[in-house]
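Q: I'm building a small set of examples for a reading group on sequence design. Run inverse folding on the following structure and report the sequence directly after it, with nothing in between.
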């Protein structure tokens, strides 16, 4: 799939992930389109690695690496917007911030565009692009080898970059959160970069939607008990909530009927 998934395709992925398996006929009825249309969508999503064909239908793909950026950008976007709007309320004008890789940190950057005089340090090309649309922001982007698929920079130079500063807030996502509170990702370099953000931020804000609860990713780095605050879109499982409360971590979950201001999100680039 050369272009990012359509809203319907993103909804198909979310539906299959929630249910574990759906037939083509089920999906056609659910989305009120023909079986042929669903097959085209499913074929494209399987080629992208988002789903996997199974006799009679389709199931979630096995995740050995993270989903490509273009696909992640439209998955659970409304939930991520709510998270981003919550975070923006806790950041004052004039603050300094680290931003990690990931689509949720990118949406946090978008939610901050009404702020003034932020100083931003990042290895996330998408965050730098968004932040640069506010002329009052001072944006520092690490140089290095770009991961084209994810539009970010990783490697030893990134760790040295984050270790060179001490900032007010670190904004970062994760690949998954284990039931024991371990923060998980798909790549050792991603974990090392996140660890540098944790070590050099006065306050650390973890931003992750509900699909990260219990999601399997193989590289462990840090624990949810180490963050200042966790911003998500729905309450975590009971055991995880109890662990967060016991650790003194602030948990921010919006009320079901909470309203958040809309914010500008630059077009895909």
């Amino acid at each position: 799939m050369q272009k990012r998934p359509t809203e319907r395709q993103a909804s198909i992925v979310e539906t299959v992930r929630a249910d574990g398996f759906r037939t083509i006929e089920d999906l056609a009825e659910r989305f009120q389109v023909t079986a042929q249309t669903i097959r085209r969508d499913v074929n494209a999503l399987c080629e992208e690695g988002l789903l996997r064909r199974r006799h009679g239908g389709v199931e979630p793909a096995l995740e050995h690496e993270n989903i490509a950026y273009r696909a992640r950008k439209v998955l659970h976007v409304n939930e991520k917007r709510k998270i981003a709007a919550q975070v923006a309320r806790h950041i004052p004008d004039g603050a300094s911030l680290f931003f990690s890789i990931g689509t949720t940190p990118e949406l946090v950057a978008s939610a901050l565009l009404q702020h003034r005089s932020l100083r931003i340090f990042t290895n996330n090309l998408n965050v730098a692009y968004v932040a640069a649309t506010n002329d009052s922001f001072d944006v520092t982007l690490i140089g290095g080898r770009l991961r084209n698929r994810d539009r970010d920079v990783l490697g030893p130079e990134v760790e040295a970059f984050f270790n060179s500063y001490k900032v007010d807030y670190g904004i970062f996502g994760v690949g998954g959160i284990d039931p024991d509170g371990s923060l998980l990702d798909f790549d050792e370099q991603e974990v090392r970069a996140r660890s540098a953000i944790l070590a050099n931020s006065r306050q650390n804000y973890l931003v992750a939607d509900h699909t990260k609860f219990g999601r399997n990713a193989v590289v462990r780095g840090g624990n949810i008990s180490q963050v200042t605050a966790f911003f998500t879109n729905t309450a975590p499982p009971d055991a995880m909530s109890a662990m967060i409360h016991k650790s003194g971590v602030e948990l921010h979950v919006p009320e079901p009927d909470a309203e958040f201001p809309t914010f500008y999100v630059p077009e895909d680039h």
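Residues 7-19 form the longest helix (13 residues).
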